[in-house]
Specification:
InterPro entries: EGF, EGF-like_Ca-bd_dom, EGF-type_Asp/Asn_hydroxyl_site, EGF_Ca-bd_CS, Kinase-like_dom_sf, NOTCH1_EGF-like, Prot_kinase_dom, Protein_kinase_ATP_BS. By secondary structure, this protein is an alpha+beta fold. About 30% of the residues lie in helices and about 25% in strands. The chain has 3 domains: about 150 residues, no CATH class; about 130 residues, Phosphorylase Kinase, domain 1, CATH 3.30.200; about 240 residues, Transferase(Phosphotransferase), domain 1 (Orthogonal Bundle). The structure holds 2-acetamido-2-deoxy-beta-D-glucopyranose (4 copies).
C-alpha cells in the first residue's frame, strides 16, 4: 500500500507543477501580446477578439460600439441586441455578424406555404452599414423569387432575384448563376433590409425534390453554392456571415479633428481616413507603425529589421521610428537596399595607421575644445572686469538716477561705442593733453562730433563717488560751459564725453592767433566775463560747490561765434588728493596753480579764482602763464606781474595790441582785479561771482555813445595794415576777416 500511496502523491505533485507552469506561460503570453482593448477591459469574448473602440459594456467601449458578452450554446459570444458578432477587424473597419436565412416552404399536404422571414435592422445612427462590396443578396431554390426591400429615411429601394431550375441534374456545385441560385448586389450606405417572397413562385411544381426557397444577404466569399441547399433543407434556419462596414459616425475627418475631445484617432502616429460607406471616418496607424490607432499610444513602431519581409535590406538594417535604413557592412560599399555591397579595395589599412589617425584626430579635438573653453573664460573675465569697474564707479546709482530724471540728455556709453568713435583711441584723434588726462575727438554713431576725455589716474575714494559726481555734472547747463554728454564706467579709468567745440582755445587765440584776428580789449573783456560767469555758476550750482580745479586759457574753448565755453570742469574730482599723485598733475598746470593748494592739496573755489586771475593777466598782457623773456629763464607771469604792480611799471607788461591811452583806466582796473584774484591768501580773494560783476561793470563802462564808431576805425586800421596780423594772402580773405572781427566784438 505504501508504495502505491507514494506513487499517487508524486503524480499529484507533478500535475500541480505542470498546471503551475501552464498558468505561468499563459500569463506570459498575455503580458507579451499587445493589447487592443482599453486597460482593464476584456480583450475577447469567447473566441472573438474585441478591439477598442468595441468593448464589453459601456465603460470599455466608445459610444455606439458597446457589445454584450453572453453565454449561448456552450460558449461566450459577443452580441449587439440579438445580433451575434463573429469577428471584428479594427484595421479594415469591418465586422462579421451572423445573419439568418429566410425561407419559404411548400407544404404539399395542404398546398400551403410557410414562411420564415428575417429582417436585419441596424439603426442609421449606429456605426454599421452593410458592406456593398462584400455582400450579395442571394436566393436559392428551384422556383423562388425573393425581394430585398430597403427603406429607411434616406433610401427607398427594392430589388429581387429569381432562381429557377428544371430538375436536380441542372444544378452545379459552386455556381450561383441563376440555376437554383441567384445573387445581386446592394447599394452602399444601408443598415436595414427585409425579405419578401413572391407567392407565385412557390415550389408547388418542384416540391417533390425541392420544397423550399431561401433568401439571405450574405458575405459573397463565405457562401459557396451547394446542390444540397436546394435538394435538402440544409439552409433552413441556418445563419450565414454578413459583413458590416463600421466607422466612427457621422463626421468627416475634417469635422472630427476640430472637436479634439471626441476625435477617435487618439494615438500618436495615427491618421484619419474618411469612411467609404456612409458618413464617418476610420483611423489608421501611419506608415511604419502598427497597432490600434484608437488607443493612446496604440500605434507602435514596426521593427522592419526584425522581419525580413518588412524591409528590403540586404546589408545591415537599422530600425528607426516609423522606418528603417540600411547600410553596407563595414569595409564594403554599394547599394545595400539592392543587395549590391562590394568589398572595398583600399580598406586594408594596417591597424597601426588607423590607430594613429584615430589618436591624432582625438587629440586635435581635445585641443580645440580646450582652446574654446579658454577663449570663453577670457571673455567672461573681461565682462566681469567691466562689470566690476561699472559698479565701482557708481554705475548703478547713476543708472537709477538717470532713469528717474528723464530727458537729462546724459548717456552712459559702453567702451565699445567710444572705441568705435575714436578709432580705438588712435593718436591721430588726440585733441590735447590736460593735467588729468588726454582728450580725443570722436564721432558717435549718430554723426555727432564729441570730445572724449580719458582720465589718467583715479584714486579709490574718487572711484566710489564717481557716479554721484557724474550725476551732479550731468545737470550743469550753462551757455558758457561745454556740455557733458555722458560717461563710460566700464573701464579701469572713467571716460567723460563732452560736446565738441570747434574754434580752438583761448590760449591759441591769444598766443598763436592762427585766425589772424585782432583781439580788441572789448572782445577780451567779453570772453573774461563769460568765463567768470560760467565759473560763478559752477560754484553756486551745488553744495559742496563744483570746483573746476584746472582753469587756464587752454581750457576756455571758443565756439563758432567766439563765445567762451569753459571746458574740463569734471576734471576737478579726478584731482589727486594725496602727495604721491600730486606730482603728475602739477606739470600740466604750472603757472595757474593756487599756491595755497600747493601746501594743502585742498582745492577750493578760491583756487579757481586764483587761476582765473592768471587768465585775466594773459588777456591783458598777451603773455603765457610761464614765458621766456628774451633768452632768460622761464618767468612766472603772475609773480612777474605782482612785482611789476608793486614797482608801478606794469605798463611794460601790457599787450601792445590793446595799449591805448583812452583805455588805460579800464586796463588798470582789470589789473587791480587780477591782483585781487592773485592774492596769496585764498580768503582774501574775491568770490567768482564778485569777479564776474566787476568785469560786467568794466565792460559797460565803455558803452558810451561817443565810442560807437571806434569799432569801424579798428577794422579799418586792421585792414590798412593787414600784414601785422595775418599772412600775405589777406586780400583774398578780405570779407572773412571782416566778419570775424565783427563776430569777435559782439560775441555773436
Ligand atoms: C473572421 O471570420 C471569418 C469567418 O468566420 C474567418 O474566415 C476569418 O478568418 C475571421 N477573421 C479573423 C481576423 O478572425
Ligand atoms: C449625424 O447624425 C445625427 C443623428 O444621429 C444627425 O442629426 C445629423 O444630422 C447627422 N450629421 C451628419 C453630418 O450626417
Ligand atoms: C402557387 O403558385 C401558383 C402559380 O404558379 C398558384 O396558382 C398557386 O395558387 C400558388 N399556391 C399558393 C399556396 O399560393
Ligand atoms: C535597385 O537597383 C535598381 C537597378 O538595379 C534601381 O533601379 C533601383 O532604384 C534600386 N533601388 C534602390 C532602392 O536603390
Amino acid at each position: 500500500m505504501e508504495p502505491e500511496g507514494n506513487f499517487v502523491t508524486t503524480r499529484i505533485v507533478i500535475l500541480w507543477r505542470l498546471f503551475l507552469i501552464r498558468l505561468l506561460t499563459l500569463q506570459l503570453t498575455f503580458a507579451l501580446a499587445p493589447t487592443n482593448a482599453l486597460p482593464g477591459c476584456p480583450q475577447r469574448c469567447g473566441d472573438v477578439e474585441i478591439p477598442y473602440p468595441f468593448g464589453i459594456g459601456p465603460s470599455c467601449s466608445r459610444e455606439g460600439f458597446t457589445l454584450n458578452c453572453t453565454f449561448s450554446d456552450g460558449t461566450y459570444k459577443p452580441f449587439l441586441n440579438n445580433i451575434e458578432f463573429l469577428n471584428i477587424s479594427f484595421l479594415l473597419g469591418q465586422a462579421r455578424i451572423a445573419n439568418g436565412v429566410s425561407s419559404q416552404c411548400y407544404n404539399s399536404k395542404n398546398h400551403s406555404l410557410t414562411y420564415n422571414n428575417w429582417q436585419m435592422n441596424l439603426a442609421a445612427s449606429s456605426p454599421y452599414r452593410f458592406s456593398s462590396t462584400l455582400n450579395k443578396f442571394t436566393t436559392v431554390g428551384c422556383d423562388t423569387l425573393a425581394y430585398i426591400a430597403i427603406s429607411d429615411t434616406a433610401h427607398r429601394y427594392r430589388s429581387g432575384c429569381v432562381s429557377v431550375c428544371e430538375d436536380k441534374e441542372s444544378l452545379t456545385n459552386g455556381s450561383c448563376s441563376g440555376i437554383g441560385c441567384c445573387q445581386t448586389a446592394i447599394p452602399k450606405g444601408i443598415g436595414y433590409y427585409a425579405v419578401r417572397f413572391d407567392d407565385n413562385f412557390n415550389s408547388s411544381d418542384t416540391y417533390w425534390f425541392s420544397p423550399c426557397g431561401y433568401a439571405v444577404l450574405v458575405e459573397e466569399g463565405a457562401f459557396e453554392f451547394s446542390t444540397s441547399y436546394v435538394t435538402t433543407g440544409a439552409l433552413r434556419g441556418r445563419k450565414l456571415p454578413l459583413v458590416l462596414d463600421w466607422a466612427v459616425r457621422n463626421k468627416t475627418c475634417r469635422q472630427a479633428r476640430r472637436n479634439t475631445t471626441s476625435y477617435a484617432c487618439v494615438s500618436d502616429n495615427s491618421e484619419c481616413v474618411d469612411s467609404g460607406n456612409g458618413p464617418g471616418y476610420l483611423c489608421n496607424c501611419s506608415k511604419g507603425y502598427q497597432g490600434n490607432p484608437y488607443l493612446p499610444h496604440g500605434c507602435r513602431d514596426i521593427d522592419e529589421c526584425a522581419n525580413k519581409n518588412g524591409s528590403s535590406c540586404s546589408g545591415v538594417c537599422h530600425n528607426t521610428q516609423g522606418g528603417y535604413w540600411c547600410s553596407c557592412p563595414p569595409g564594403t560599399h554599394g547599394n545595400p537596399y539592392n543587395g549590391t555591397c562590394y568589398q572595398n579595395q583600399n580598406q586594408k589599412l594596417p591597424l597601426a595607421v588607423k590607430l594613429a589617425t584615430g589618436i591624432g584626430i582625438s587629440l586635435l579635438l581635445i585641443l580645440i575644445i580646450f582652446l574654446c573653453i579658454h577663449i570663453i573664460c577670457e571673455k567672461r573675465k573681461l565682462i566681469k572686469v567691466k562689470e566690476k569697474n561699472f559698479q565701482e564707479h557708481g554705475g548703478k546709482l547713476l543708472l537709477e538716477e538717470i532713469g528717474k530724471q528723464q530727458g537729462l540728455g546724459f548717456k552712459i556709453f559702453t567702451e565699445e561705442e567710444l572705441e568705435q568713435a575714436t578709432n580705438k583711441f588712435h593718436r591721430n584723434n588726440i585733441l590735447g593733453h590736460g593735467g588729468y588726462g588726454t582728450v580725443y575727438k570722436g564721432i558717435l554713431k549718430d554723426n555727432r562730433v564729441v570730445a572724449i576725455k580719458k582720465a589718467k589716474i583715479i584714486g579709490e575714494r574718487q572711484k566710489k563717488e564717481f557716479g554721484k559726481e557724474m550725476l551732479i555734472l550731468s545737470q550743469i547747463n550753462h551757455k558758457n560751459i561745454v556740455k557733458l554728454l555722458g560717461c563710460c564706467l566700464q573701464v579701469e579709468v572713467p571716460i567723460l564725453v563732452y560736446e565738441y567745440v570747434s574754434n580752438g582755445t583761448l590760449f591759441q587765440l591769444i598766443h598763436r592767433n592762427s585766425h589772424g584776428i585782432h583781439l580788441s580789449l572789448e572782445a577780451r573783456l567779453r570772453i573774461a566775463l563769460e568765463s567768470a560767469e560760467a565759473l560763478a555758476y559752477l560754484h553756486s550750482l551745488a553744495s559742496p560747490p563744483i570746483i573746476h580745479g584746472d582753469i587756464k586759457s587752454s581750457n576756455i574753448l571758443l565756439d563758432d561765434h567766439f563765445t567762451a565755453k569753459v571746458s574740463d570742469f569734471g576734471a576737478s574730482m579726478l584731482a589727486p588728493r594725496d602727495e604721491a599723485q600730486f606730482v603728475t598733475l602739477v606739470q600740466g598746470t604750472c603757472g595757474y596753480l593756487d599756491p595755497e593748494y600747493l601746501q594743502t592739496y585742498q582745492l577750493t573755489t578760491k583756487s579757481d579764482v586764483y587761476s582765473f586771475g592768471v587768465v585775466l593777466l594773459e588777456l591783458i598782457t598777451g603773455k603765457k602763464a610761464l614765458y621766456f623773456e628774451g633768452n632768460e629763464e622761464e618767468t612766472n607771469l603772475s609773480s612777474n606781474f605782482l612785482s611789476a604792480m608793486k614797482e608801478n611799471r606794469f605798463g611794460e607788461l601790457l599787450d601792445d595790441r590793446i595799449k591805448n591811452d583812452e583805455e588805460m583806466e579800464r586796463i588798470s582796473e582789470i589789473a587791480q582785479l587780477a591782483k585781487a584774484c592773485l592774492n596769496v591768501k585764498g580768503e582774501e580773494r574775491p568770490l567768482m561771482k564778485e569777479v564776474a560783476e566787476e568785469l560786467d561793470r568794466l565792460r559797460k563802462m565803455k558803452q558810451h555813445p561817443w565810442d560807437q564808431h571806434s569799432n569801424p576805425t579798428e577794422i579799418e586800421s586792421l585792414l590798412s595794415n593787414p600784414s601785422s596780423y595775418c599772412g600775405a594772402e589777406i586780400t583774398s580773405h578780405y570779407s572773412l576777416e571782416k566778419k570775424a572781427v565783427l563776430n569777435i566784438e559782439s560775441g555773436r
